């Protein structure tokens, strides 16, 4: 009798699995709706040897700033027109990571 109860319970759970699967949702699925508009573009970045240039739109024209980079020296600066900030951290003598945060 006990084995029959266990078998019946297992059979019930096995047959109800597709019902449980329909209710589970995949993480990361769905629709995201954005409302608004991009009114200004992002800044353009360019590096040449140890010179770093940023070009940002100020509403009427592109405005350029130029910075000198030094190896293994942490760099932090504001973008033109207070659009955001940039940060450069050196990993080794030849590799750096630039982080740009827009306001």
Mean pLDDT: 77
Individual helix count: 1
Tell me the β content.
Answer: 35-45%
Structural class: alpha+beta
Largest sheet: 3 strands, antiparallel
Q: pLDDT below 50 for ≥5 consecutive residues: which ranges?
A: none
Gross morphology is elongated
The order of strands across the largest sheet is 1-2-3
Helix content: 10-25%
The total of beta strands comes to 6
Radius of gyration: 28 Å
SSE order: HEEEEEE
Q: How far apart are the termini?
A: 70 Å
Oligomer: single chain
Would you spell out the secondary-structure blueprint of this structure?
Elements: H1 2-23, E1 44-48, E2 51-57, E3 62-68, E4 75-78, E5 84-92, E6 95-102
Antiparallel strand pairs: 1-2, 2-3, 4-5, 5-6
Keywords: Signal
Signal peptide: 1-21
Protein name: Type 1 fimbrial protein
Would you mind describing this structure in some detail?
This protein is an alpha+beta fold. The protein has a domain at 44-102. Helix content is 21%, strand content 39%. It contains 1 helix and 6 strands; from the N terminus they run αββββββ. Strands 1-2-3 form a 3-stranded antiparallel β-sheet, with no helix packed on it. It has a 3-stranded antiparallel β-sheet with strand order 4-5-6, with no helix packed on it. A hairpin with a 2-residue loop joins β5 (84-92) and β6 (95-102). It starts with a helix and ends with a strand.
In short:
The chain is α+β, with helices and mostly antiparallel strands and about 100 residues long. It has one helix at about 1-25; strands at about 45-50, 50-55, 60-70, 75-80, 85-90, 95-100.
């Amino acid at each position: 009798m006990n084995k029959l109860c266990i078998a019946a319970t297992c059979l019930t759970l096995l047959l109800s699995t597709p019902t449980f699967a329909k209710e589970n949702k995949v993480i990361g699925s769905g629709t995201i709706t954005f409302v608004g508009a991009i009114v200004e573009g992002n800044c353009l970045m360019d590096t040449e040897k140890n010179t770093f240039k940023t070009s940002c739109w100020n509403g009427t024209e592109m405005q350029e700033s130029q910075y000198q980079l030094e190896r293994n020296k942490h760099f932090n600066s504001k973008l033109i027109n207070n659009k955001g900030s940039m940060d450069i951290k050196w990993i080794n003598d030849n590799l750096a990571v630039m982080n740009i945060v827009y306001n």
